[in-house]
Amino acid sequence: MSKIRVYELAKDLEVTSKELVGLLKEEFDIKVKNHMSVVEEEDANLIKELMSKDKEAKAASADSEKAKEPTKPLNKKEQAAKDQADTKAAADKKKSIVEVYEEEIAEKVNNQAKKKKRGGRRQQEESGPSDVGIISIGETIVVKELADKLDKPYNEVIKTLIMGGVMAAINQEVDFETASKVAESFDVMVEREEAQVLGEEFVDEEEVDNTNLVKRPPIVTVMGHVDHGKTSLLDAIRSANVTDSEAGGITQHIGAYTVKVDGETLSFLDTPGHEAFTQMRARGSQITDVVILVVAADDGIMPQTRESISHCKAAGVPMVVAINKMDKPQSNAERVKQELSEFGLISEDWGGETIMVEVSAKERTNIDKLLEMVVLTTEIMELQADPGRRAKGTVVEAELDKGRGPVATLLVQDGTLSVGDSILVGTTYGRIRAMFDDKGKKIKSAGPSIPVEVLGLSDVPQAGDRFSEFKDEKTARNMAQARLDKERAENQSSGRMSLEDLYSQISEGNVQELPIIVKADVQGSVEALKGSLEKLSTDEVKVRVIHGGAGAINETDVILATASNAIVMGFNVRPDVNAQALADKEKIEIKNYRVIYDAIDDVRSAMIGMLEPDIKEVILGTAECREIYKVSAVGTIAGAHVLTGKIVRNAQVRLIRNGIVVYEGKLASLKRFKDDVKEVASGFECGLSLERYNDLKEGDIVEAFEMKEVKRKEL
To answer: Do strands 615-631 and 635-648 pair parallel, antiparallel, or not at all (unpaired)?
Structure first.
């Protein structure tokens, strides 16, 4: 018996998928999960028939009610009189509203004038005994604000600062100690303000009012392998939604843009892919509602495709697969579906729930269908926001423009952002001077899910930083400073997950899951290590491999580890220079192994508190082989340049080629020109050869290391 998808039936009945799901459960006792579920064709026909009769009955009832109303038509004179009366009523209403507003505005202007006059008079008065008593200030304060708090003329406060040896203008900041001394000279006590909420999460003063929630546009990110047509697909989507009048100006897009699909708005993030996606998640900015995963039909699953899938699953974001390049003769969509099924992504026409659309970005085919499927996927999510509250959102990208200063692309996620609003962005702040939409047009405000480019920030924020609107610029500035202080303190005492302290964290109940990223020299080793590690799970802690792949440990792996607080394990591979630098900065633990069972034993021992980290590997330095020489009776010698640290003659070394360890042993010789040397420092050239190994190649990296004893931790 044939079946039909819920979303297809909803389209036939001219209702939303969400309405139909509820209707099936309540009226027909048919239980379905979502818009991708199926119903029997017989049931579908019955539902169509019943709803058709219901619609006819409602239409007949409406006609009957309409028939009861007086239908006598008005003549031209009567119609003209009616129109004139309606116009006069509207004008009177408008006039009364204007008069009320004019009164309010006049009252505000008078109040402001009186306030200004009082302030000017106060400035001219000589200083006298203060009745302020106690004031509160933060770590720093602007001289003008200090004078206002002390209720003293600005020139008196500046004079006091100069007498104390501090040369500060009215708009300069002074520290807490300096401000305290100034206050004491005016017989005023000072107390330090408590730091407010500060990290990436901050207290929201406004409570969420569900009655004000309205539907918001979904936010979409396109991900996939570098040459599978991601950029071409983005261009096809963009050009398909640009009118003739807009063509040519579309190049001004700001890293994010909106498109219309059957009356629905979609917001696309034009990000570099999974790295930016995960960096934002690492900063607590889960901004994507759905991901379009692009896979080339002629190429299939590639390393970056696997990484994208892992990152989406870790973030819990639904995917719609675009099988691209269907215009090529060698394309094979069924093979792509087969490969995707190995990652748990089963196509709907194979009985699964993952939407897969065959498209050609080059020929612009099936682009509309792809967008329609994205709308259907997000329809069931009930995406809502309150446009009436203070604005909140995330930085998509930012840069320093020579002519305009710090420029940031912001994605409003809740509330409405307007020109003149004061915002806190990460550890910077500002008052919005100007705002532009994705076409470069000046606008005054932007609601939920709308990307905008803004000017007016004090510094350039980072992609992924969250922003929030505050009542004034002063509050935003104070919180930015406090957040910066907190960030510095956290960097000094950052505690990431490590095997050495795993048992103590389990005992304290702080760990329920141990996320691990596995990289190995071959895919077979990845699968073997993944299976063995996940079998170590217990009732107290679950071991979960969130990503695995063949090849060197790269920056993407470290970024994912940062977002997921994971441990990176390498089997016969090494981190590249950038990955190691980032791991050191973020305090991410990278464990390197030559034997697969050592990795398994280490995790097992750490979980039961028996890990003995009494020997630690210390990297001494790295050198790049730049020239290769074959010398008879000696073997192969490499002319090398020391990149980091130093190469030591008696140290152990490993040879790394494309991130893979191909040799581990000792140096046979180390020379500077013709002389044997004990070590060569960073920045210098040297000649070297390896014991019992001659297959040296240009571009190989020689890494010198030693095993160092460390004190065992008490458990």
So the answer is: antiparallel
